[in-house]
Amino acid sequence: MEWSESISIAALGSHLLVGLSRAMILFIVTSGLSFVLGVLRVPNVAHGSLYMIGAFAAFSIVNALGGGAPGFWAALVFAPLIVAGVSLVAERALFCHLYEREHLMLLLFTFALMLILGDLVKMVWGADYRSIMAPEFLRGSLPVFGSPFPKYNLFLLIVGPVVAVGLWLFSTRTRIGKIARAAAVDREMVGAVGINVSWVFAFAFVLGCFLAGLGGALVAPTVSVTLGMDHDIIIEAFLIVTIGGLGNMWGAMVGSLIFGITQSFGVLFWPQFAIVFPYAAVVIVLTLRPKGLLKSVW
């Protein structure tokens, strides 16, 4: 049977929205990784572990508050803050001493940190699968393109652009955002005018990790919260920042859209090999644009 006969416009529209909602989660996590790459030049492999901690923290907060809308909103606020606290301790105790080291050493160090955080998560929450439910007002679906579409996915389609605009405004309109961008270009000059570059870097690192925690809290109602969920996301995140342009926030958005949409359409057209589609897109992009679609800050 031809695709044109078996796949309707409604199915195409529905899968497009699913891909966009998946892309929003990827963008929120990847934007944090890209921000850290852009300012600190740190390829933080442990970023995925912080995403996982955000998901587990959201589970604990929702359970502690008995679920419902109050627990959900509290999880979206406090789970990323917990991740930010963990990242601040790691940055002040470890990362701040390593920024001048070679990228390979930083890569190995953050890989080791990923393993440590994974074991800590196992000690605190155990190895069982966990799950949380979205609040009542985000359950169910609405008709979109003639097909039911989950309300929670629509919520993600709103949150993603809000985070993108907020991060852009922070980077370009606030004093600390401008200082962070300047430090990424010439940290010695920024330090020479009396600014404490160490704390600027700490803030940039914590903000990037906060976004990882927010992504984990947002994804928790849609997936099983379990050990190992950090591995898949960090692979996808690094591929996205690579095809988008290292350290480029809008490149992270474009890369996330490519990854999410190709994955969704892969499920529609060839479900047995759906996982191949986004990676094939990555190969095509890097073949045509080895330095990424948008300008890299490296």
What does this structure look like?
With 298 residues, this protein is an all-alpha fold. The chain has a single domain, classed as Orthogonal Bundle (ABC transporter involved in vitamin B12 uptake, BtuC). It is 72% helix and 3% strand. It contains 12 helices and 2 strands. It has a two-stranded antiparallel ribbon with strand order 1-2. Strand 1 and strand 2 form a beta hairpin. The longest helix is centred in the first third of the chain and has 32 residues.
Give the neighbour order of strands across the main sheet: 1-2
Low-confidence stretches: 1-5
Q: Count of DSSP helices?
A: 12
Q: Count of DSSP E strands?
A: 2
What is the topological layout?
Blueprint: H1 3-6, H2 9-40, H3 47-64, H4 68-93, H5 103-125, E1 141-144, E2 147-150, H6 151-173, H7 175-185, H8 187-192, H9 197-219, H10 229-244, H11 249-269, H12 276-288
Antiparallel strand pairs: 1-2
Helix pairs in contact: 2-6, 2-9, 2-10, 2-11, 3-4, 3-5, 3-9, 3-10, 4-9, 6-7, 7-9, 10-11, 11-12
The gist of it:
By secondary structure, the protein is mostly helical. Helices cover 72% and strands 3% of the residues. Strand 1 and strand 2 (147-150) form a beta hairpin.
